[in-house]
Amino acid sequence: MSKEEANNIVYTCSEHSMDMYFQVKQFEKRPEAKDYVYVRFADGDQVESMWVKILQGTQQRGHGKLDNIPVKLVDRQLGDTINYKTDKEGVTWENKN
After folding, report:
1. Which domains does the chain have, with CATH numbers?
2. pLDDT at 1 over 60
3. What is the distance of C-alpha 45 from the center of its chain?
4. Nearest-angstrom CA–CA distance, 25 and 50
5. When comparing pLDDT for 74 and 8, which is higher?
6. Which of 52, 50, 69 is nearest to 61 (CA)?
7. What is the pLDDT of residues 26-56, one digit of tens each?
């Protein structure tokens, strides 16, 4: 698959972006999602949220493999290994450090 399926993509305006992020992030609490974390990626003014399969760590901090095909962030690919960390507001961000 070279493109994410259309029914697996949600677009939002910047005003409602965080509301949608937290709605989708609720799926982390399901037993079948215990090995996944919903991560936000920022590149300039582009922001995209995608699922990451945890390889080491927890849903709050660790590293894993990208489990979505990026739509807006062209420098990421399905299967890329990334580090992530959850901030005090509960948002999990790619951790480039």
Report:
1. 6-94 (2.30.30)
2. no
3. 16
4. 10
5. 74
6. 52
7. 999 999 999 999 999 998 888 999 999 999 9
CA-to-CA distance for 23 and 43, rounded, in angstroms? 22
Alpha-carbon distance of 13 to 28, in angstroms, equals 23
Q: Which of 31, 30, 36 is nearest to 49 (CA)?
A: 36
Strand runs (DSSP E) across 1-97, as ranges?
Answer: 36-43, 46-57, 61-66, 81-86, 92-94
Q: pTM here?
A: 0.89
Report, in angstroms and rounded to the nearest whole number, the Rg of the chain calculated over CA atoms: 13
Whole-angstrom distance, CA of residue 39 vs CA of residue 58: 12
**What pLDDT score was predicted for residue 96?**
85
Residue 1: partners with Cβ closer than 8 Å, 6 or more residues away: 69, 78
Question: Which residue, chain included where needed, has tokens 């760590």?
Answer: 57
> What does the alpha-carbon distance between residue 69 and residue 2 come to, in Å, rounded to a whole number?
7
**Structure-token pair, residue 87:** 């901030």
* Torsions phi, psi for 29 (to 5 deg): -75, -15
